């Protein structure tokens, strides 16, 4: 069978003042097209469905329409769990109606999905944190351990966590109990979770800008070694870059976000994962690059002319600009830069070929004239940049109205 794994849609996400909704529409259409072209049998969406607990109407509408199309109007099961950006109750709320369309929404950890049956598939077994699917055309079941993001409060409520007990132990025991009871070699066994997971002893994986670290209380990050041996593929959400932190035989995969959502992701290619699985055999998976979405660039220039030339040649982008100059940018220069491109997110002025430390102005002569004091103050607040003539003239106008 074929399974599509995606995560971290962050619907409603903005980059500073720029909405990403139009790009999200395009890239989700692309994911739907891939699912149809690849003829996948099951879709997993591993959390951070929205960008905040109170998404806008457009983001919610895009979410429901996308899941409905992915489900082929109930013919293909779609399972989506909440992440640390999602309100669990918001994710759970439409579940009774969503099930009629073949969509299973899981907001809380240890949730139990009640069995139901549609024309093309049915849930044949379920327990807290677990469900088993049987699809027409396959003579084996698919077992899924589902672990939405769990904060400390939810862990205590659902897992009975003690403050002294590490999250690794809580999850390892819970997952082991489920797999020992339900996951033998006669079915495909999967885990989907929204967690910060890594190999024990491996270098720390960078979390995306804008993400709060999801270390829970004083618990360590989750080690991939806690995943039970019966699990053939682990579908993760949270980190925005595609990576397999497991092994080729037992992949543990962050599928990546569908778009670059911060400048720390500039230049990244985004993917979805297509898995081929059958019982009691190693899965194979392929990452498929996503093509939609504006590229993000961090660029540094040393002249206004070079800046405008590059911006003019790269119109359909979102840009963080650093412009090195001898003095503070003039208003006319800023205007020229912004008029040349509609996607400038940040414009960062920087002193050119000049080392400056605030300590250099630690002792200021307060007996000097007011214009000189202003110039020293301006330098201290702007990383050593000199106030230009326009600013000095404006300051003099204020002093002498």
Assembly category: single chain
Work out the strand percent: 15-25%
Instruction: Specify the overall morphology.
Output: elongated
Poorly predicted runs of 5 or more residues: 215-219
**What is the residue-averaged pLDDT?**
87
Main beta sheet: strand number and arrangement? 7 strands, mixed
Count up the helices: 10
- Helical residues, percent: 25-40%
**N- to C-terminal separation?**
78 Å
Structural class: alpha/beta
Across the major sheet, the strand order is 7-8-9-10-13-15-14
Radius of gyration: 26 Å
Number of strands: 20
| Order of H and E elements | EEEHEHEHHEEEEHHEEEEEEEEEHEHEHH
Describe this structure in words.
By secondary structure, the protein is α/β, with parallel strands linked by helices. 27% of the residues lie in helices and 24% in strands. It contains ten helices and 20 strands. Strands 7-8-9-10-13-15-14 form a seven-stranded mixed beta sheet, with helices on one face. Strands 6-5-4-1-16-17 form a six-stranded mixed beta sheet. Strands 18-19-20 form a three-stranded parallel beta sheet, covered by helices on one side. Helix 1 (21-38) packs parallel to helix 2.
């Amino acid at each position: 069978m074929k399974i599509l794994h995606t995560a971290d849609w962050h619907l409603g996400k903005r980059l500073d003042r720029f909405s990403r909704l139009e790009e999200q529409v395009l890239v989700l259409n692309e994911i739907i097209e891939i699912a149809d072209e690849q003829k996948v049998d099951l879709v997993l969406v591993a959390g951070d469905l929205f960008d905040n607990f109170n998404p806008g109407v457009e983001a919610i509408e895009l979410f429901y329409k996308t899941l409905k199309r992915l489900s082929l109007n109930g013919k293909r099961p779609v399972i989506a769990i909440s992440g640390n950006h999602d309100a669990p109750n918001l994710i759970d709320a439409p579940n009774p109606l969503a099930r009629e369309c073949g969509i299973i929404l899981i907001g809380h950890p240890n949730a139990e999905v009640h069995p139901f049956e549609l024309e093309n598939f049915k849930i044949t077994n379920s327990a807290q944190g677990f469900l088993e699917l049987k699809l027409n055309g396959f003579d084996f079941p698919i077992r899924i351990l589902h672990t939405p993001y769990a904060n400390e409060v939810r862990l205590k409520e659902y897992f009975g966590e003690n403050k002294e007990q590490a999250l690794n132990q809580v999850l390892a025991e819970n997952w082991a109990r489920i797999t020992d009871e339900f996951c033998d070699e006669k079915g495909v066994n999967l885990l989907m979770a929204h967690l910060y997971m890594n190999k024990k002893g491996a270098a720390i994986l960078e979390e995306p800008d804008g993400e709060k670290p999801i270390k829970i209380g004083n618990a360590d990050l989750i080690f991939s070694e806690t995943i039970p041996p019966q699990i053939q593929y682990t579908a993760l959400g949270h980190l925005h870059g595609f990576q397999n932190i497991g092994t080729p035989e037992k992949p543990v995969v962050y599928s990546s976000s569908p778009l670059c959502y911060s400048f720390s992701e500039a230049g990244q290619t985004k993917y979805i994962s297509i898995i081929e699985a059958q019982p009691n055999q190693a899965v194979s998976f392929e990452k498929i690059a996503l093509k939609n979405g504006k590229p993000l660039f961090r660029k540094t220039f040393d002249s206004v002319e070079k800046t405008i030339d590059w911006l003019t040649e790269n119109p359909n982008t979102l840009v963080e600009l650093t412009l090195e100059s001898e003095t503070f940018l003039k208003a006319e220069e800023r205007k020229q830069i912004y008029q040349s491109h509609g996607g400038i997110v940040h414009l960062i002025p920087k002193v050119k070929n000049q080392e400056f430390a605030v300590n250099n102005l630690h002792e200021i002569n307060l007996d000097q004239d007011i214009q000189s004091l202003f110039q020293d103050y301006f330098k201290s607040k702007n990383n050593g940049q000199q106030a230009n003539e326009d600013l000095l003239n404006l300051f003099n106008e204020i002093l002498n109205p």
